[in-house]
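Support request, priority: normal
Reporter: lab tech (M.K.)
Component: structure prediction queue

Hi team, I submitted a job for Pentatricopeptide repeat-containing protein from Urochloa decumbens yesterday, and the status page still shows it as pending. I've pasted the exact input below so you can check whether something in the sequence is tripping the parser. The sequence length should be 669 residues. Please let me know if I need to resubmit or if it's stuck on your end.
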Amino acid sequence: MSRYLYFRPTAGNARHPLLAHLDACASRAHIAELHGRLIRAHLAPDPAVARRLVALLASPAAGHDMRFARRVFDGMSNPNAPVWNCIIRGYTSRRAPGEALATFRDMVRRGVAPDNYTMATAVSACAAADGWAWEWRAAGDAVHAMVRKIGSAADLFVMSGLVKLYGTFRSVEDARKVFGEMQERDVVSWTSMISAFAQRGMWDDALRFLAEMQADGVSPNKVTIISLLSACGHGQAVDRGQWVYGHLSEYGIEADVDIGNALISMYAKCGCMSDALEAFKAMPTRNTKSWNMLIDGFVQNQKHKEALTMFEEMLSTDFNLDAVTLVTVLSACTQLGDLQQGRNLHSYIRSREIYCDAILLNSMINMYAKCGDMAAAEMVFQNMKQRDVVSWTTMVCGYVQGRQFTAAFIFFEEMNVAGIVASEMALVSLRSACSQLGALDKGREIHAYIEEKNIKRDVFLESALVDMYAKCGCIDMAAEIFSKMQHKQTLTWNSMIGGLASNGHGKEAVQLFDQMLKFGDPKPDVITFKTVLGACAHVGMVNEGLRYFHSMSSFGIAPDIEQYGCIADLLSRAGLLEEAFEFIKKIPIDPNPIIWGSLLSACRFHHKMDLVTKVRQHIINVAPNDVGTHVLISNLHAEGGQWDDVQQIREQMGSRGIEKSPGHSSIQV
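Reply from support: The job had stalled in the queue. We restarted it manually and it finished. Here are the results:
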């Protein structure tokens, strides 16, 4: 595929000494310097020179610098197919399949005839995308149709790419059909087909094709082994992976560093980190990727301290860290909430003047934000030369998480001024801020923004809208959005049920819960039951509440202290105080002060002063220093004229240093 990377300059410029440097460029900095010299020498507009620059910038030598490559490409008047191919391939290599396919469509619209290389690259772009998304499958089918239309179905590279494409989509029958249509097959074709079977767990077919491959005179190579190990990892088939690795000698394949890395990755994806560590230690040679695989495996398996331990061990070796290492270690710091370790890593990056791309800087912002240091997060953000939507989203979400809502909205406004369209994640986070503030006007502004920008409303964003309107008291608007949603998840039902309950519509909340149960999918979770039990308590639906409580086990949910508290509150509000008292005493989890407090409040409401004395000792034992509990008991005794008991409680408060704090409230102005 390197056949398109060299372009012969036009005859008029063939002897210029600068052009001799084009093929010698080995880095992005070298290319950038040469580009400036070509501009000053008035050679940059030359079509052949521009083609060569695009090819170099989109190649690994320049780190697939697609921003620079695109700028040169867009300045060309009539780029030919090889130049388009370089751009498409560059985007695919840069893991930007959306841009690659958009460029491919633009090429076809502008009347440039694609060749076999173009089609192979377009197929590769489709395979690089998320194969589970129907739109990518549709794009793959469209590219396949064009392959047939322009006669590329005889090209080995194109057809092998299609086999891999359908394997990515886990469509084995389509992959097998393409494989059967191939006029010739090489090790790539066979490997793609075998990998497609393995990804679906069709091991009998995979092994049969492996035997047929050898019978056809094609020997498996290390790519075949790596593909099989990768499939075993994705399929959690650790036994099969060990079998594949154990048969290396049979295929005459040496276990080099690439296969060792694939083995580590397979073990990590299967959750077998002790085996991954053992495989790592057994490797005769390692590279930076080996360390990255192991460290990332620990992070993915929630073993963050082990990941940091391996990173420290890596620092003591001669291996060079790369962006992948640093991003992974920052993730470990984030998950641990280890701000100091994150700061140490930031200092390490600065002291060694390590180049930070957007991904690494965004990871750094995320670490500081999740660890609560928004000042440091903003400093990294402000020093970024190029910010993307992830940078802005991380800042907005960080401020919301830290309850700095004003700063979050300011960043959102600055984001608009910068011309960045907010992501769904940022909007969901801002909706949460509106819900917590009760800021209905801000919520409506964001809703209008979503409509204006025509932002795709997924289930999380729509659920956030329901939650915001419900918590701001606009239950009719919440119900309207809820009713129009085509797909609802448990969190959606929870938001609507909770919204109805908190806005005085307890019976409607219970009715909606019954409707959820009738649908059968999605299933209620712990939060659903807490919400509906609370609704039952507020409207006095004792029998229904008890029935729902006892049905939790049928959904595989064990009641926690909050569900037990809801039942205690349900019985207390209904005046069934003795029943509530007996229920609380039998709770298998130690009741907290809130549960006993709800019973005390009910005693006050129903004038059951005889029960107060029984409850009093229980609650003081549970919360001997809780000021609210002591004040409530004191007030209850005072209302019953039991002044000796009042004096005793106040003396206990004084001896324990318990003081009543003044109350406060806040409103949005």
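Confidence is low (pLDDT under 50) at residues 1-14. The first helix runs from residue 28 to 40. Let us know if anything else looks off. Ticket resolved.
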